[in-house]
Amino acid sequence: MAYSNAYTAYQKTNVSTASQGRLVVLLYEGAIKQLTAALSYINSDGKVIPSNIEKFGICIQKTQAIITELQVSLDMEKGGEIAKNLMSLYLYFNEELVDASITKNRKKIEFVLNMMSQLVASWRVVANSTANAPAAKIENSLNITG
Predict the structure, then answer these.
(1) pTM for this entry
(2) 2 vs 98: CA distance, rounded Å
């Protein structure tokens, strides 16, 4: 139990101290984790055994909630074409997941998982850039003293 509490505290600290870019990466990583889990509940013949139906559904719902959070975090005014394109992708992902939830279509889940994996790689680069670093780190890298 103490391990669980320590891990929960670590996660809260990780989120509360993260930069905006890192938060986006964490959201993507959460979606990828949930999609991977959802796939583990679908048999090779495209069936979900009755005891796993609820778990499968929860994974899809959590992924959709994460995608919705990514949608509402977009700044459509300042984000320009990139924000518009991401919004279109997120809407499409949620549509595919609604269908996959009903039909238990592995290929649709795998497609969304693959796209999210590609996007998170790009977001990791952004999150690690100097432009996204805390002010103290930028000052140190520029040898600026306050």
Answers:
(1) 0.76
(2) 37
